[in-house]
Q: What sequence folds into this?
C-alpha cells in the first residue's frame, strides 16, 4: 500500500506535463528532448548542407551526400528522407530536361 505524499498517478500526470527540452526527456533520448527551436535549427543546418552539396562537384555527380543532423529518438535511416526527396526531385528535373 502506498503511504507517500506523491502517488504514482500524480507523478505520471506531472511527468506527462513536462515541456519539450526537459531534462527527463533529454536523459531518455526521446523526440521531446529537443524544443521546436532546436528542431528548426537542425532542419536549417540540413537544408544548408544539402544546398551546398547540390552546388558542388560531388552533388552534380550524386556522390558523398551530406549526413543530416542526428535527432533524439529518431533512427538514422529515418533522417535520410530529405536526401531521398532531393534525389527524386533531381531525377524528375533531369527527366523533364531530357524531354524538352
A:
Amino acid at each position: 500500500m502506498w503511504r507517500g505524499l506523491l502517488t504514482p498517478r500524480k507523478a505520471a500526470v506531472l511527468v506527462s506535463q513536462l515541456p519539450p527540452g526537459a531534462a527527463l526527456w533529454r536523459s531518455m533520448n526521446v523526440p521531446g528532448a529537443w524544443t521546436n527551436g532546436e528542431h528548426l535549427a537542425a532542419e536549417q543546418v540540413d537544408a544548408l548542407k544539402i544546398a551546398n552539396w547540390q552546388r558542388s562537384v560531388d552533388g552534380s555527380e550524386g556522390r558523398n551526400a551530406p549526413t543530416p543532423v542526428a535527432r533524439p529518438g529518431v533512427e538514422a535511416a529515418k533522417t535520410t528522407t530529405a536526401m531521398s526527396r532531393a534525389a527524386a526531385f533531381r531525377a524528375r528535373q533531369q527527366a523533364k530536361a531530357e524531354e524538352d
